[in-house]
Amino acid sequence: MTAASAPAQQLLSVSARADNDAFNFWLAAYNRPDEEYTSGVRGTLTYAGGAWWERYLHERAASCGNGTTRCATRSYSFGQDMYTGQLVPGDTTHVPGTRPNAGWLYLQESSRVFAADYLDETSITVGVTGPPALGENTQHFFHSIAPDFNRPTDWSVQIPFEPGLVLAYDRTQRILVHGEGRVFGGDVEPHAGASLGNILTEARAGIRVREGFNLQHPWQAVPLRSKPEISFFVDGTLHAVVRNEFLAGTLFRSSPHVEERPFVPEYQAGINIRWQRVTVSYSFERTASEYWTRPTGHTWSRLGAEWRIER
Asked: How many CB atoms lie within 10 A of CB 11?
């Protein structure tokens, strides 16, 4: 069986990522923030062929394989995000005007349709906020492992239970490509998208620049190579926010909340190392202040790994 004729049910890759301001390794362990977007974990399985509902949005695309010009994949993700307010130093009391704590436990199905110069990603996410999201339980568990390096927690003020739905679409273009597959290469990737739902409604646009060694295509399947790819990237994105439940509070009833800023820039820089079937990555991200009563932004970091299944 050739890669291009791979069955639509074939598992292509397994990936996981963890976001945490505890990964700000340039700071002493006792001095890392532990606030705002403080934790996120996500596991993903990616399969050949698009989601069933994708046929209503795009013309049917083939399953992806090495050399396929236009193709589709779909992925299923399970994750949890956690947001916490700033605490008074040495106390569990929230600083006046800080955001409420919030947890988000979710399932997501994404469909990706792409060619050499573009990537379209559409997703449906369902989940819950409040105690069923297990934010308090998760934070208490991990803080209990190393109490000397963790601040006390207080979940008495948090976003209550509400079911959530988010529909999202993003388009990424690939331009100004040079040196692909050679010793040194790079590309530029403008991107834009939007989300609609009670959890998040926003539009966004940005640009990513990659430079590196033995650079390969960022989303198409490529043959396994004996030389590792090492790439560095920077990204800047502007979010135009209409509603963010983790700041505005629950939609269908009154709850703790803060006043959102309508425009929030976000910056990212990191490194990817890809060799054979394995990709590992590390990045740090700076999100500007998301609400009016917080004067400064927040920096957090991401660790990621992907195992590509042999095809």
From this structure: 11
